[in-house]
Design a protein that fits this description.
The protein is 37% helix and 16% strand. By secondary structure, the protein is an alpha/beta fold.
Amino acid sequence: MKIGIPKEIKIHEYRVGMTPSSVRELSHHGHEIIVESDAGLGIGFDNQAYQEAGATIALNATQVFAQSEMIVKVKEPQPSEYHQLRPDQILFTYLHLAPDPVQAKGLLESGCIAIAYETVTDHLGRLPLLAPMSEVAGRMSIQAGATFLEKGNGGSGVLLGGVAGVAPGKVVILGGGVAGANAAKMAMGLGANVTILDKNPHRLNELDWMFRGRVQSIYSTYDTVEKYVIDADLVIGSVLVKGATAPKIVTKDMVKKMRPGSVMVDISIDQGGCFETSKPTTHANPTFLVDDVVHYCVTNMPGAVARTSTVALNNATLPFILTLAEKGYIRALREDPYLQNGLNVFKGHITHETVANDLQLPYLPVATALSNEEIV
């Protein structure tokens, strides 16, 4: 199979769909890899490294899209990219379609087969291709929060770890999944006072054992969210509903009651954000104020540590890329129900029920979509 790796064009995005090591693995299995010139240069993977791994270097993205049967990316395609997709071409990347009807329309019109990293599951219902970036974003959220708590960056001037004789900062984490747990790990390491809120009693029990009682675990209700958010120095939003737009857990009224200079980091912003006051930002202009509360809502947080993120992501995606390349998308999807869960768009149809519901578009079950397809 011919696999294309375009350079990411979202602002301050330096990750790349495949590392030279991944390219070498695919080349070893007989597949042709076409990499856009300088696609990995921002994180130290130059054209020579890709060529030595067996890739062909294309001059521009147009050549990559035109020559490839499968496109492997990191971030959702931008307008100039989804207009280059064609019928039967596979797109394998993060999509986050539920809050993005414009992208959904572009993918539907292209006729492509779009498989989203964030909805591929494993046998336990976990999200193995989202997990690496959730780990990164969770850990980064505390770094970002600590930075913007500094007075010179608009914050209240609180040091999360405190010092002798001064209480540590209060960190409240909404959602105890992979991102939330990693945020807690970092915050606890800095010496902060950490509270996690979640609706799943089983998960709260796991977190209690994981952190040996050093992190306070609280059942999430409107009342408890309000109580802990209002008193927090730093709030981390890491709420996830698979494939769906994130629920608005923190209201405008709660934000109004927070102390000036408090910081909110919305990890859920890719899925629309879990704060009512959130709006997408970039690494070039990462924050804004609402009622004197600092909001950090960067939609590609892991892009700031692009080399670590790229390698971590490739560790998770490579087996799936290889399966799609070896078997073709029809056989690969039919044989792997967990990969099937990643199929969001198929030849002009939405094939993920939650995405379809959020976009208010017709839903075509994957089994129906694949039923008339012939393996070539």
